[in-house]
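Run log, item B.
One chain of 361 residues. Sequence copied directly from the ordering sheet:
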Amino acid sequence: MSMVTLGIALVGVALLVLVGALLVRRKGQRILSAPVKKTGQVAGVQGAASFEGAVRTQQPLPAPCSGQPCVYYELIVEKKVKERQGASTTTRWKTASKQHWGSQFWLDDGSGPLLVEGREAADADLQQTYKGALPATMPQPLADRFEEILETKVTEKIVPAGARLFVLGQIAHGQLMPPAKGKLTVSTRGRDALLGSTKKLALRLSAFAGLVAAIGAVVMIVRPGEARPCGELEDSQKACVVATYMSTTDDFQADGSTKKVPIREQKLSWVVTKEGRYQLEAKQMPRERKWLNPTIQVEDKWGLPMNVGMNLKLGNAANDFKTKTKNLKPGTYTVYVWSMAEGPAQLQFGIEPLAAAEASN
């Protein structure tokens, strides 16, 4: 993955986190905009409202794993699978299902009971009451194609039947319902604690999004550890990236004829201001796997070759080619870089004064 691609990915993650921060902030605004009312005083009330009180129910739901009485529970069933994709096999945990069950119950703060419609999915603070092997009484998850189930587990979370709750929804026909667009907000922590934690979470998510976006922008601009595109060449050149294009060259046959052969090539202008001999190198980009087999030719202004070297290496060694020039006088030279037509469109290129290159070899 290039540094630009990584930077874009980080900015994308930052945007997703920022969206999450905005959703959390909107939740906080909903809590603020719906002040707590008395449960026994909803006559004539319509629209968004919130309440705090004790749960009252004659028939609580039994949580399927722990058996604890509750008014709402969620089950997350996971399966450990062995997946086969061609010749490779991977093992991982994945979510098989996520289910919820709720009930109607009464909320009472001492002023009178209020019926709460809690059968739909809720945005709730849940208490974990079980995590372990899937009970034999529960249906086992099915295996998808190309996978084998090795193990299963389930996590159970509930809203206890005896809890004191803060509930935010909307009043309709004298009962508390989920909003037309959204879910009931249910918390065992109370309004003030829920509002405080919501504000903190929104601030933390916003700060994290800003930090990740800044890192992504720096990575895109600075590109740490990645060679820059080759610009104008002058004397020595640290590792840079050469982009090649498709072309053809004449390949001399045994009978003296020529045959057009496809190659990748690039033509570079190189200004030499310091007389001397130089070593030029072309090699694979980091993490590249295609066969490159590069060749470099340096020519003076009359088109005469000024370097010695042919890429006669075998195997992967042929993907790193070095050539040495004759003694070059100050002037402008042309550098041709060739590589295999089937190879990558980019390669890494560099120039060193020969004395320095020999010392490093």
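Observations after the first pass:
- The chain is about 20% helix and 45% strand.
- Residues 228-360 form a domain with the Jelly Rolls fold (CATH 2.60.120.380).
Flagged for discussion on Thursday.
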